[in-house]
Amino acid sequence: MTEPILTVVVPCYNEEEVLPETIRQLRALRDQLINERLISVQSTLLFVDDGSRDTTWTIIYKASLHYPEVKGVKLSRNAGHQQALLAGLFAAKTRSDCIVSIDADLQDDISVIREFVKKFHEGYEIVYGVRNRRDTDTFFKRHTAQWFYQAMKAMGVQLVYNHADYRLMSRRAVEELERFEEANLFLRGIVPLLGFRSTAVFYDRKERFAGKTKYPLKKMIAFALDGITSFSITPIRFISLIGFLSFFVSILFGAYFLFLKFTGHTQTGWTSLITSIWLLGGLQLIAFGLIGEYIGKIYKETKRRPRYIIDLDLFNLPKALPFLPEETNVAERKQR
């Protein structure tokens, strides 16, 4: 079998602290895989700048000038991690036999890419990177993640447990993925639907090499809701939150009113009436919010707006531009 052309897609958002080390380690791994005759010398590293506000693009661009295997795609604005990942996958598919997606923070063990490629040689078209355990996560994140996977499984959604977006996909798999035209693709749920021959490779997740996480609690909650409903509408979610709060407050007030009833400080019938009003009101707001999530999903799908807009694509250019874009020079001057 001829050595396949591999492209490693790395979505980046404000990763200036870790990116130089990420580039160094991935370049070293690429050279090793070429020497082992697992991948072609035409294999590349594709970094997607998701509208970063620091010098992330400057680092990517300069690396592309020094190393021909390093390429970059710059989005015109911050479109989000999943959209940036899709931009990289779709840009790379025309010049790759297989594509690996990995985050820039070096928490995922890059040496596992070797196992991904070996599985690709065995005929697997999708290879999932699955965490052995989540020791590097906080107690809260670890247990909420487990709850999320269990909830998705209960609703019949096919997810690979403890798998994020660290995976290998064949060109054919990416081409089929591009046929899914939803405005907001939840990749962890969509990729298993492709149905191609797949397997998993297990690894231990590391601590973040440098910088701060780009997924605080607010984003994790939003991501989970997107996975359940495939869309997020903030105002409607706010209504849902009010509904949940009203429901739980009604329970507290119900207990308080029962206490008043038993101590003889209220009139007959008042307790059941006020408790039912609070309870039903909260449940109605929850229902309206959940229905609104799906209406919001339909609303966004009907607009058919592009998922992302590419500002500069160095991957499909014959060579890098001999100058830095104006905004990059400005960022560099600010850094000085």
UniProtKB/TrEMBL annotation:
<keyword id="KW-0812">Transmembrane</keyword>
<dbReference type="InterPro" id="IPR001173">
    <property type="entry name" value="Glyco_trans_2-like"/>
</dbReference>
<dbReference type="GO" id="GO:0016757">
    <property type="term" value="F:glycosyltransferase activity"/>
</dbReference>
<keyword id="KW-0328">Glycosyltransferase</keyword>
<keyword id="KW-0808">Transferase</keyword>
<keyword id="KW-1133">Transmembrane helix</keyword>
<feature type="transmembrane region" description="Helical">
    <location>
        <begin position="271"/>
        <end position="295"/>
    </location>
</feature>
<feature type="transmembrane region" description="Helical">
    <location>
        <begin position="238"/>
        <end position="259"/>
    </location>
</feature>
<dbReference type="InterPro" id="IPR029044">
    <property type="entry name" value="Nucleotide-diphossugar_trans"/>
</dbReference>
<protein>
    <submittedName>
        <fullName>Glycosyltransferase involved in cell wall biosynthesis</fullName>
    </submittedName>
</protein>
<dbReference type="InterPro" id="IPR050256">
    <property type="entry name" value="Glycosyltransferase_2"/>
</dbReference>
<feature type="domain" description="Glycosyltransferase 2-like">
    <location>
        <begin position="7"/>
        <end position="177"/>
    </location>
</feature>
<dbReference type="GO" id="GO:0005886">
    <property type="term" value="C:plasma membrane"/>
</dbReference>
<keyword id="KW-0472">Membrane</keyword>
<dbReference type="Pfam" id="PF00535">
    <property type="entry name" value="Glycos_transf_2"/>
</dbReference>
